[in-house]
Each structure stands twice: as C-alpha cells, then as structure tokens.
Amino acid sequence: MTNLAPAPPDHPDTKSLPSRGERLRALVRLRSQRRGLVVALVMASGAASLLAASTLYNSGQPDVVALGRGKASVETMPVAQFASADSVRGDRITPPPSPSASGMGSGEASYYGSSDGFAGRRTANGEVFNPQRFTAAHRTLPMGSRVRVTNPSNGDSVVVRINDRGPFHGDRVIDLSYAAAREIGLIRAGRGNVRLALLT
Predict the structure, then answer these.
(1) How high is the pLDDT of residue 15?
(2) Which of 111, 146, 157, 178 has its CA 20 to 30 A from that of 123?
(3) pLDDT tens per residue, range 3-27
C-alpha cells in the first residue's frame, strides 16, 4: 500500500496575487490615465486664461448695437455721468469734447420751480426736482437727453438734461428749470423764444 502524503493546502495569499503581466498592464493603464489627467488640467488652465483675457479686453469696449442701417455704441451709464456733473449748486453740465448737435428748431420756452411749489416734487423720471439744477421738461425727448437752449436775443445758451415731461400749456416747446432760465436771461420776461439743439 502506497502511503500518499496529503497535498499541502494552497496558501491563500499566493492564489490572489495577479500575475506579472497583469501588474504591468495595470501600471501602463495608470500611467496613461495620469497623462490624460495632466493634459486635461493643462487644457482647462489654458481655457480659463483665454476667458479671463477676453473678459478684460471686452470690459473696456462699449457694446455695439445695430440701429437700422447704422450702429451706435451703448456706453455704461451715460445719464448718471451727466447727472453727477449737474450738481446741487446748479453747475453747468459740461458736454463731452466736440459733441455733435442736431438742430431742433425754435419755439417758446418757459420756466418753473422758483415759487410755484414744484421744488422737492418727483419729476417724470423719478428724481426730486431741484430748480437750481440745469434740467428741463420736454414732451417727447428721451429722459437723460442733453439739449442746448439758446436765447437768440442775447446769444446766451445753456445745456440742460431732460428729466421731466411738459410743458402742457399753449405752444411752448420746453420748460426750463429756474437756474437754466436765469442763465439765458428769461427770468424777467417769464418766457421767451429759444433755439434748441439736441447734443449727441
């Protein structure tokens, strides 16, 4: 009778280890994934840099909007800039260098705000009316428009900002604030013929 020794039990650790070829394939896969990750990070960083540069460049450029056949640039808060120049003391609104003006013809102007109770009330655009500022009321011009008003009898002119609607009496074409009317010599007469030019 042959005495067979029992086979040694398999060691659990040696059975679960991958072969050398499997380990090499896993290593190659990891290196490939790492390379792909590095390339993706470099591309994302480059795209972020391009986006930041584009944003910085575009922030200094005005938006250009097509208006019919022409184009117009839309600057940031132009009305607010003019409003800040139009101080409580009634300082003139300084137009930008070499503005172009479109003649609007002539007509009768009046003024309001000296003792008629309008001071402190809200204008059509929501501002508090201050008769010492160079502002005016017009029936149709957009709020914030700047208009040069000239008194042809003495040649004096003033630039006003439209912030209200009116006048609604008679054939008057513009209602000036007290300060603007005083600037061109209309206070004594109360009204007078003026020439208007829209500043663009």
Answers:
(1) 59
(2) 157
(3) 555 555 555 555 577 788 888 888 8
CA distance 160 to 172: 16
Question: Which amino acid is it at 152?
Answer: P
Dig out the tokens for 78 from the structure: 């132009």
Q: Which amino acid is at 153?
A: S
Asked if omega into 142 is within 30° of 0 (cis), the reply is no
Dihedral of the alpha carbons of 8, 12, 18, 20, in degrees to the nearest 10:
-40
Of 105, 83, 188, 189, residue with least CA distance to 150: 105
pTM of the model: 0.51
CB atoms within 10 A of CB 145: 18
Conformation bin of residue 59: beta by default, left when phi > 0, alpha when psi is -120 to 50: alpha
DSSP 110: E
What is the rounded distance in angstroms from the CA atom of residue 29 to the CA atom of residue 23? 10
Instruction: Determine which helix (DSSP H) or strand (DSSP E) holds 78, and give its type and residue range.
Output: helix 78-85
* E strand or H helix that includes residue 51: helix 20-59
Lookup result for tokens 């909007």: 65
Q: Which of 199, 172, 197 is nearest to 186 (CA)?
A: 172
For the beta carbon of residue 131, count every other beta carbon within 10 angstroms.
Answer: 22
Q: If you search the block for the tokens 């004096």, which residue do you land on?
A: 156
Residue found by looking up tokens 């009317």 in the block = 181
